[in-house]
Amino acid sequence: MTWWLFRSTLDEAKDASLLLYVVDAADPTFREQLEVTRTVLAEIHAEDIPSRLVLNKADCLDTVQKHLIHREFPDALVISAQKQ
What we know:
Layout: H1 3-10, E1 19-24, H2 30-43, E2 51-56, H3 63-72, E3 77-78
Parallel strand pairs: 1-2, 2-3
């Protein structure tokens, strides 16, 4: 996906009352992807919209990884869409 297409997709976020960042916590590059998303939201002046971080694929993380994720992102929801 090109940068401008990603940005135009996020342009819709300006009308939102809540943004959910649903991230694959098992992907080692998720932090960088999250940062790109936040950067683009700031560029389109949507950084002040309330948001919630949802870290998915908790079932793919071991106990140590889950602990570290909870420490780094204490307000995030850590879930597994596959297992409940």
